[in-house]
Amino acid sequence: MNKKEERKNNILAGAFKLFLNREYANVVTADLEEATGVTRGAIYYKVKNKEGLYRAVIDKFVFDLISAPIDRDISVSKETPFRDFLASESEIVRERMDMLRELNIDVTPTKYLNLLTSAGFHYDGFKDKCRDLERDISELWLTYYRKGIEAGELNRHADPQLVISMFRSLYYGDAFCLSLNGGELDTDELKKKYSLLYSAIRT
User: Per-residue pLDDT for 1 more than 80?
Assistant: First the structure.
């Protein structure tokens, strides 16, 4: 990473931390200067204004973060491709959490959910991008579910869409519940839940 990229990432990380803790409308340029440690000119050199910076933050810490599995090279066995995919998904969740910890940013489910809610109002086209992302991620899950069917790993009589929805609800459901009580997602617990549901659809 060169110095320009490092500076850009530091600006986005500082702004991300600020927007996590303060509503978009209540953030002023002086707040951004304090949070990022650089001047107004450096902050707005690429993104032009607060709205542009906000969009860049949401793109990096929401859309890029969540869409990472779509372009990832996932190695699975011929015998149990769906089980291996589940293991990969669990690892991706852990990596996301570790990456945010390395930035020294306190990203609780509560704060992240508030950020997403705010983006729905202040990021033009946010809901459309979310729908597109949800479609692509669901298709990724279905791809590996079909591989499991073809390999004789999974029960052919289960409704694929329903099963995928149940798996994904485990993650999003836990994250939502934790947003209510301020807890942190336990990836080991998530793996156990994946394993329990997986055992119900195995042949």
Answer: no
Q: Name the residue with tokens 């699975």.
A: 76
List, for residues 130-143, the tens digit of each pLDDT value.
999 999 999 999 99
Q: Convert the chain into a string of H (helix), E (strand) and C (coil).
A: CCHHHHHHHHHHHHHHHHHHHCCHHHCCHHHHHHHHCCCHHHHHHHHCCHHHHHHHHHHHHHHHHHHHHHHCCCCCCCCCHHHHHHHHHHHHHHHHHHHHHHCCCCCCHHHHHHHHHHHHHHCCCHHHHHHHHHHHHHHHHHHHHHHHHHCCCECCCCCHHHHHHHHHHHHHHHHHHHHHHCCCCCHHHHHHHHHHHHHHHEC
Which pTM does this prediction carry? Answer: 0.88
User: Apex CA 104: angle with CA 98 and CA 105, to 5°?
Assistant: 90
**pLDDT tens digits along 99-124:** 888 888 888 888 999 999 999 999 99
Q: Which residue has the tokens 């409704």?
A: 159
